[in-house]
Amino acid sequence: MIRTIVVADSGPLIALAIADQLELLATLFESIHVPQAVLDETTADRTRPGSIAIATFVQAHGQVHANRDDAIYAGAIKVLDEGESQALSLAHTLACGVLIDERRGRQHARKLAIPVYGVLGLLLQAKRVGAIDLIGPSLDRLRRHGYRLSQALVDSALHLAGEAKAVE
């Protein structure tokens, strides 16, 4: 089990809410930190899918942090959005990993030597530790709600989870 601390970005919170798997964060991580900008992005519009679930989850399990204005943020905001920039700044300060799925954000985190976690990796880890039985239904929900996952990535994740469909 991971059981460390993590800073969450908006995209993965939304994805996990849509997949009805937000509680996996509390199972896999010791503590979940959320920048105020990320909380605002994910919960300001209560009609947005997952917003109420995210607000409820963060209130129960998350630690919300004021927005930052340090050198990490200043460098990140030049190429990333507000939530990603705040998440990277906070993760750097807390010396922990960041839950982020957007490719540019992941690349920037790696340049800063910040450990990166993604939704598919969390689903796979959750299956490995017995927190969920299958990842396929979560992937299906994500794709039905427009979460962009390439077929190759889905196939790879299903294969790693031992859920790959047999080719006829």
Describe the structure.
The chain contains ten helices and five strands; from the N terminus they run βααβααβααβαβααα. The protein is an alpha/beta fold. It has a five-stranded parallel β-sheet. α7 links the parallel β4 and β5. α1 packs across α3 and α3 runs antiparallel to α6. The chain is globular and about 45 Å long. The protein starts with a strand and ends in an 8-residue tail after the last helix. The model has no long low-confidence stretch (mean pLDDT 92).
Major sheet = 5 strands, parallel
Helix content: 40-55%
CATH architectural grouping: 3-Layer(aba) Sandwich
Strand order of the largest sheet: 3-2-1-4-5
CATH class: Alpha Beta
- Give the full name of the CATH homologous superfamily: 5'-nuclease
Order of helices and strands: EHHEHHEHHEHEHHH
Taking all Cα atoms into account, the compactness measure Rg is: 16 Å
Helix/strand layout:
Layout: E1 5-8, H1 10-18, H2 23-28, E2 31-35, H3 36-43, H4 51-61, E3 62-65, H5 71-76, H6 82-94, E4 97-99, H7 103-111, E5 116-117, H8 119-128, H9 136-144, H10 151-160
Helix pairs in contact: 1-3, 3-6
Salient structural properties:
10 helices, 5 strands, Rossmann fold, alpha/beta
Summarize the structure.
With 168 residues, the protein is α/β, with parallel strands linked by helices. It has a single domain (1-168), classed as 3-Layer(aba) Sandwich (Rossmann fold), CATH 3.40.50.1010. Helix content is 54%, strand content 11%.
